[in-house]
Amino acid sequence: MGLFESLREAVTPEHEQAARYRCQHCRRQFAYRADLSDPTCPYCDAGALEEIDRP
Question: What are the residue boundaries of the structural domains of the chain, listed by start?
């Protein structure tokens, strides 16, 4: 397994273990591990996040 594959697996959450969020400040959507406490927006560092349902 290559370096990029290892990195992708390390930072890509599993579908079943991911929680999707929308930042209330910049309105971008992203996913974090479901067990992560106090997530912040990776784009603008805001803490006001809205958990959204998976499509």
Answer: 3-52
Q: What is the pTM of this model?
A: 0.63
CA distance 34 to 1: 26
**What distance lies between CA 37 and its chain's CA centroid?**
12
As a whole number of angstroms, the distance between CA 19 and CA 39 comes to: 10
Distant-in-sequence, close-in-space partners of 7: CB < 8 Å, separation ≥ 6: none
* Single-letter code of the amino acid located at 26: C
Give 18-49 pLDDT, tens digit per residue. Answer: 899 999 999 999 998 888 888 999 999 999 99
CATH architecture of 3-52: Single Sheet (2.20)
